[in-house]
């Protein structure tokens, strides 16, 4: 039986390229998504779980791995199940864009077919926040239906 290196097997840990593990990047991006949807700052999230905002930044970038107990704490503060952080994760974790790869500049070229996740865009987050600030449920529902109709009409014209 061979000794394990630092208690890790398989793809655990940082890849040999020195870039963050794609799974850590995905989990961190889901933390950022939920925090932003709630309108919570990195500082407030850090205070709620006993961390500095710099540590929250590192988690969100995937630079630091989030342990199981910390992930549980985050799920409670962000009011989501732990599984939320793994939702929408591709079957091939290596296809997850890292912060270096998604910046487009240095490193590998981006695939021309790659479209960024619309849920990761600031515009989407601002739209969702504004939508939920509408206090009248009927107005909110009508706006939702209008938006769907406009999108469907635009798609029908494009076909």
Automatic annotation (TrEMBL):
Pfam families: HTH_3. Residues 107-119 have a biased composition (Basic and acidic residues). Residues 1-25, 89-119 are annotated as: Disordered. GO terms for molecular function: DNA binding. Residues 31-85 form the HTH cro/C1-type domain. The lineage of its organism: Bacteria, Pseudomonadati, Pseudomonadota, Alphaproteobacteria, Rhodospirillales. It comes from the Bacteria. SMART domains: HTH_XRE. InterPro entries: Cro/C1-type_HTH, Lambda_DNA-bd_dom_sf. Residues 1-11 have a biased composition (Basic residues). CDD domains: HTH_XRE. This is HTH cro/C1-type domain-containing protein.
